[in-house]
Known about the structure:
CATH class of the largest domain: Mainly Alpha
CATH topology of the largest domain: Helix Hairpins
Largest sheet: 6 strands, antiparallel
Oligomer: single chain
Strand order of the largest sheet: 2-8-12-11-10-9
Shape: elongated
Order of helices and strands: HEEEEHHEEEEEEEEEE
Distance between the termini: 59 Å
Helix content: 25-40%
Low-confidence stretches: 26-33, 302-326
Number of domains: 2
Radius of gyration: 37 Å
Amino acid sequence: MDKIWKKKKIIAVVLGVIILCIIGFSVIKKNKASVPQYTTAIAEKGTLVVSLSASGSVSSNNSRTVTTTASGVVKKIYVKKGQKVNTGTPLLQIDLDLNGLQKYQSAYASYQSAKNSLKTAQDKFYSLESDLVSAKNVYVNQWSMQSPDDPTYIQKHNTLLTAQEAYDNLQNQIKQSQTSLESSRLSYQAAGPIVYAPITGTVSSGVVNYPVTIQLDSAVDGLLPNMSATANILTYFKDSVVMVPNAAVQSATDGTTSVRILKNKQIETVTVETGINNDTQTEIVTGIAAGDEVVTAVSTAATKTTTNSTQSIFGGMGGGTRFVGR
């Protein structure tokens, strides 16, 4: 009986060990953590070129297309055949019909309304500018160094922010009023009874565009009227400047500009002063040097960590913990 009992006991112990080992061998967790990935570029020193791209068509240098929105009968012609005219020269006068007269009066009313709106905004501008200067002086000279928790500090800071917002909003309003005025002036002129040599622009998405004529220095073989043309117009360039991609430059609500640089695998935000810029690059006047690695974009990549744990009731047969990061 003792032998049978001992045998059963050994079998029970072995089975217990096997069961414990099976239970101990498990995957504790699979975790996904967010790790930032940085896209960087090197600050370069060189020549920064600012240019405009324009497209149009080839035309003869001694002819222009004249358009008008006025309707009626030609009453008088001011020029003769073959006469040379300049931009703005009166060409003819139209005796407006009823539809043309209504359109002309409506365009004139819109023009006057735009003039009044601009004048109102300009008159208000100086008052808001004075309020902003006063609020800024009070805040900077008396409260900027106080505790941000101080109720009076909060009040003066909010007053400054409100004044700045009102000033900025009015500046935008003035720009919009100027665009609206020019647009209405063009419409008023186009609807008028006098037709001029082309000086009018076109309005697209609230922006007034004027045609520009580029004259070639010499004749080009095969260049014919109405061919499509594209020109890159150099407006400004600057030598020996430190420049970074536009995406690297960040602007804060307080007006400061900064660039993030990568040093020793650490991100550092540096306040910079910017200069000129084009569609792709911005000049950095102070703050960083050529060769610095700047951050242009940040994305988040998934990292999977798997932990395997094996345990045993026997110390010598114990497993361990393994971390696998990808």
